């Protein structure tokens, strides 16, 4: 698993594209695993701070309970639909996979100014990042695995 900062060192061009696409799209979807192993998807927001990628959750949200029980997760960031006339101009989608580790240390939590004392904060540790796009007439992939 890698922090965002480690990912930037290992694959700077891919990290730059992934961050640009993530910052340009509020439509991020988090996939977690329910207790029975079936998938759950939830909308999320993410932020970068101190070389890490973070996400939070409202108190007692089911996605937070999913991540506490099993930290494996994936995030999908969808960009605007490709132009039918110019598909290679499509920016593409980014998918991240890894785990979300809950942080409960009050000193770490303080700068985030989370609403309420029982909100959740998770640090994302990356195992895989994939950028899917169209190159010419072909689907292209850039990945860190």
Question: How does this structure look, described?
Answer:
It is a single chain. The protein has about 140 residues and is an alpha+beta fold. The chain has a single domain (about 5-145), classed as Pnp Oxidase, Chain A. The protein has 4 helices and 8 strands, in the order ααββββαββαββ. The chain has helices spanning about 5-10, 10-25, 60-70, 105-110, and strands at about 30-35, 40-45, 45-50, 50-55, 70-75, 95-100, 120-135, 140-145. Strands 1, 2, 3, 4, 5, 6, 7 and 8 form an 8-stranded antiparallel beta sheet that branches. Strand 7 (about 120-135) and strand 8 (about 140-145) form a beta hairpin.
Key structural traits:
4 helices; Split_barrel_FMN-bd; Pyridox_Oxase_N; Pnp Oxidase, Chain A; 145 residues; coenzyme F420 binding; globular; F420H2_bilvrd_red/Heme_oxyg; alpha+beta; 21% helix
Q: Helical segment tally?
A: 4
Low-pLDDT segments, ≥5 res: none
Query: Averaging pLDDT over every residue, what do you get?
Result: 87
CATH domain class name: Mainly Beta
Looking at CATH, the homologous superfamily is Electron Transport, Fmn-binding Protein, Chain A
Helix content: 10-25%
Kindly report how far apart the N and C termini lie: 10 Å
Radius of gyration: 16 Å
The quaternary structure here is single chain
Overall geometry = globular
Can you tell me the number of structural domains? 1
Biggest β-sheet description: 8 strands, antiparallel
- By DSSP, the count of extended strands is 8
- Beta-strand residue percentage: 35-45%
Structural category is: alpha+beta
Question: Might you state the CATH topology name?
Answer: Pnp Oxidase, Chain A
Protein name: Pyridoxamine 5-phosphate oxidase
Organism: Nonomuraea diastatica
GO molecular function: coenzyme F420 binding; oxidoreductase activity, acting on the CH-CH group of donors
Domain Pyridoxamine 5'-phosphate oxidase N-terminal: 17-112
């Amino acid at each position: 698993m890698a922090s965002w900062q480690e990912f930037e060192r290992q694959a700077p061009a891919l990290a730059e594209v992934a961050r640009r696409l993530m910052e340009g799209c509020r439509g991020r979807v988090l996939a977690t695993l329910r207790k029975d192993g079936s998938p759950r998807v939830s909308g999320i927001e993410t932020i970068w701070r101190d070389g890490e990628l973070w996400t939070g959750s409202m108190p007692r949200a089911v996605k937070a309970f999913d991540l506490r029980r099993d930290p494996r997760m994936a995030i999908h960031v969808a960009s605007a639909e490709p132009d039918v006339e110019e598909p290679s101009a499509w920016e593409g989608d980014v998918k991240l996979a890894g785990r979300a580790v809950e942080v409960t240390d009050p000193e770490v939590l303080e700068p985030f100014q989370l609403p309420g004392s029982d909100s959740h904060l998770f640090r994302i540790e990356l195992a895989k990042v994939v950028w899917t796009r169209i190159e010419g007439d072909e689907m292209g992939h850039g990945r860190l695995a």
